[in-house]
């Protein structure tokens, strides 16, 4: 038996409201929080994308540019980290999630195969 563990950190959750909970929204905030988790031993960062407009940070985003920017900030702050990209959507349209994963090519991505109650 090994005494090693793989630690994954979800930096902000899927629909956590940043006005109620201290969670990152911007790529810079994700990079800083990722670095703190990385320094504490996390080797995988599970990312959720947030809308970047003022007062919209509680809502998900499927903009490829947001995904790319968040991953870049985390990678710069956490050399060698593994990105686990969210793919969870509310509703039947998952094209945005697929676009983000296809365009940014994270090391792994979540696969939500059942119903999710958001």
Short account of what is shown:
The chain has 118 residues and is of the alpha/beta class. It has helices at residues 27-39, 64-77, 95-104; strands spanning 8-10, 44-47, 82-85, 108-109.
Helix content: 25-40%
Class inferred from helices and paired strands: alpha/beta
Q: Total helix count?
A: 3
Report the strand count. Answer: 4
**Major pleated sheet:** 4 strands, parallel
Tell me the Rg in angstroms: 14 Å
> What is the overall shape?
globular
* Chain-averaged pLDDT: 91
Please state roughly what percent of the residues sit in beta strands, choosing from under 5%, 5-15%, 15-25%, 25-35%, 35-45% or over 45%: 5-15%
Strands in their spatial order, largest beta sheet: 1-2-3-4
- What is the helix/strand order? EHEHEHE
**Model regions low in confidence, pLDDT < 50 over at least 5 residues:** none
Distance between the termini: 38 Å
